[in-house]
Amino acid sequence: MSKRGLDALLISDIKNIRYLCGFTGGDAYMLISAGRDWFLTDSRYATQARAEVKGALVKVYKKSLDVIAELASDNRLGVIGFESNNLTVDTYKKLRKALPGITLKPVSGLVSGIRATKDPFEVEQLRSSASILARCYGKVEQNLRAGVREADIALAVEAAAKADGAQCMAFDTIMASGPRGALPHGKASDKRIKKGELVVVDMGVLFNGYNSDCTRTYCVGKAGAKVREVYQTVLDAQERAIDKVKPGALVSDVDLAARKHIDEAGYGRYFGHGTGHGVGLDIHERPSISPFSKERLAEGMVITVEPGIYIPGWGGVRIEDMLLVTAGGFEILTKTAKGLTCI
């Protein structure tokens, strides 16, 4: 913090708070200084905080700003950083009013940069999350057939995930069949799947606070020539991108490997999103695997690689895996088959 000219840093992002002290509740702040760290919450979470919080003094407030102001005054904190990508404008205005004479300095990415590299405990939680997710894809394949509603398959998968130890799904399940497959985030709908359609299935589960994320694309019935061509293009693009994953690699080079292949195959205009993202306590974390990022991969990062082709009126294909960046390259955590599966 001293390099940024801060006497203290106010943490408001609840996932950052969990990462720093272990608290799993839903309403809190942390105030971190060179000499001491404080965890601040209200009476609803007092007992939970005293049981979970490590490395910080727990203070229970009636009004959070009053306690922050008291700590700032008692500890002579002249410059306090705040998480500008998380704190609302309204809360910032209230904070400024409560802390007259104290400089509030916007800070972004300080904790998220640390979180990007996972420790061994986090890696094991992510492995377990990915293992549950792999079994969920088995449930998809059991239920996927012509005439079934997308939403019914998603419901069956959610029940199976929870029975298998997941807290919940990591996000609303994407299950987009036929022309809906051209919607990168086409949530499961009442549409009934038809024979001959592609079905894009993007899912994740939450296990012990850690997310997983994987996408597979299926064909219901016999695959035609265009289906096979588009699918193979996406699969080859993903493999080219994965081959670039290693410590020190520019994430933009990972993105470029997939994007260049899709462009050369003539489908470049149908691939508009980034090639991946970090995964951890949040479903989308640093690093962003995009052509605009200047970040480099490091051992211990967990990322997704997920190129896709989305053709309006026709459908889409996306293939996504979670990878752990290792000293020697990478390990794929989402261990499900990804060749073209026709059901």
Topology:
Layout: E1 8-11, H1 14-21, E2 29-33, E3 37-41, H2 46-52, E4 57-60, H3 64-74, E5 79-83, H4 89-98, E6 103-107, H5 110-115, H6 120-143, H7 150-163, E7 168-169, E8 174-177, E9 198-203, E10 205-207, E11 210-211, E12 214-219, H8 225-242, H9 251-264, E13 276-278, E14 285-289, E15 302-305, E16 308-311, E17 315-318, E18 321-326, E19 329-332, E20 341-342
Parallel strand pairs: 1-5, 3-4, 5-6, 12-20
Antiparallel strand pairs: 1-2, 2-3, 7-10, 8-9, 9-12, 10-11, 13-14, 15-18, 16-17, 18-19
Helix pairs in contact: 6-7, 8-9
Defining key terms:
6-stranded mixed sheet; 4-stranded mixed sheet; Creatine Amidinohydrolase, Chain A, domain 1; 343 residues; alpha+beta; single chain; Creatine Amidinohydrolase
Account of the protein in words:
The protein has 343 residues and is α+β, with helices and mostly antiparallel strands. It folds into two domains: 114 residues, Creatine Amidinohydrolase, Chain A, domain 1, CATH 3.40.350; 223 residues, Alpha-Beta Complex (Creatine Amidinohydrolase). The protein is 33% helix and 24% strand. It is built from nine helices and 20 strands. The strands form six sheets. Strands 4-3-2-1-5-6 form a six-stranded mixed β-sheet, with helices on both faces. The protein has a four-stranded mixed β-sheet with strand order 8-9-12-20, covered by helices on one side. A hairpin with a 3-residue loop joins strand 2 and strand 3. The longest helix is centred in the middle third of the chain and has 24 residues. The chain is elongated, with a radius of gyration of 23 Å. The relative contact order is 0.12. The model has no long low-confidence stretch (mean pLDDT 97).
